[in-house]
Amino acid sequence: MGELKTGTVIRTDAKVCHVDLGERVVQAAPRGILFDTGEGVRSDQKNPIAVGDRVEVDLASNPASLDRVLPRRNCFSSNRTDRILAACVWGEIPATLIVNKVDLSDEEELGAIRATYEKARVPVLFTCALDGRGIEELRAGLTGRVSILYGASGAGKSSLLNAIEPGLKLKVGKISKYWDTGKHTTSYSQLHKLEAGGAVIDTPGIRVFRLYGVPVGNLRDLFTDFAPFQARCKFPDCTHDHEPDCSVFEAVERGEIAASRFASYLELLDEARKAPAADEEEPTGQAQEE
Ligand code: GDP
Ligand code: ZN
To answer: Is 149 within 8 Å of 161 (Cβ atoms)?
Structure first.
């Protein structure tokens, strides 16, 4: 038995992963068994380790070895959230992050989410459609303007709308039993007028939210929490990916930028680099329905 530590993967290279252990970042080599079928492998993934994953690292071996990928603790998807928020910055659309089902989360988890998004200057609203927490604030925020609700199906969008306006009588829990095969029961967006003024557009659940049309060099500016650091990178056009003396990467190592945000950025950067030429592009923020 070695010295096992739990951390978050913030970067994956060909043979090593950079794992943020909180107090420092270590490089760890994934154990071969992770690439076989069986224990610890997410069968739907060709590469079993993704940035953002929680993993166990054995520091006693040299180099450190990445022994296990931990199951995701909750349904809060920072990657999905960060994509949508980045699209909002690009489109200059003011956004609020609504974290629903707080009855199922603990204080520590919620505090971490708030701290992460406060740095990106995104207002965070905690709600519970069942006991009414945050519903007044949500109603106030939606009144008098047209808003769009984005989120996975099952996140509680219909429940929240019913809570702010019971007259809407939206069907709750409409995830179909065909969920597993990828079929869906709601494929339309609908605009609901609010009695107090304003309207909300409810969208079908999103499985993949892709950012189209954002030039690679602009992507870093969509992560507003990078701003205080990136002016100090050695290269003025630093992509914070491979460049030396990168202040953003150093801030991630010190915990001043959330590792999950950096992981989301790197994933979007990777996608942007592989994106088709501009004339083949679809509009920004294409959401693929569930
Ligand atoms: P939608 O697909 O985003 O419209 O989600 P729904 O409103 O249909 O809710 C999906 C499921 O989550 C339903 O079973 C709801 O009862 C449940 N749900 C919604 N909000 C909450 C909440 O705040 N706490 C808990 N525990 N469950 C909730
Ligand atoms: Zn940099």
So the answer is: yes
Point out the domain boundary residue: 30, 52, 69: 69
Give strand pairing partners of 7: 55
- In sequence order, the 6+-apart residues with CB closer than 8 A to the CB of 90 are 211, 214, 218, 222, 284, 285
Instruction: Report CA(190)–ligand 2 centroid distance (Å).
Output: 41
In this structure, the answer to whether residues 101 and 197 fall within a common structural domain is yes
The residue from 15, 40, 69 where one domain ends is 69
Is 127 a domain residue? Answer: yes
Contact (Cβ atoms closer than 8 angstroms) between residue 247 and residue 229: yes
> Of all atoms in ligand 1, which is nearest to the CA of residue 173?
8
Q: Is residue 25 part of a domain?
A: yes
User: Over the stretch 130-149, which tens digit does the pLDDT of each residue have?
Assistant: 999 999 999 999 999 999 99
pLDDT in tens, 204-244: 666 567 788 899 999 999 999 999 999 999 999 999 999 99
Mean pLDDT across 160-180: 74
For the full predicted model, state whether its pTM sits above 0.70: yes
Q: Which ligand has its closest atom nearest to the C-alpha of 206?
A: 1
> Of all atoms in ligand 1, which is nearest to the CA of residue 186?
2
Domain membership of residue 59 as a residue range: 4-69
Q: Of all atoms in ligand 1, which is nearest to the CA of residue 151?
A: 3
Residues at CB less than 6 angstroms from ligand 1 = 100-101, 103-104, 128-130, 151, 153-159, 172-174, 205
Largest separation between any pair of C-alpha atoms in the chain: 64
Tens of pLDDT, residues 263-290: 999 999 999 998 765 555 455 555 554 4
Name the amino acid, one letter, at 93.
I
**What is the pairing mode between strands 206-210 and 286-289?**
antiparallel
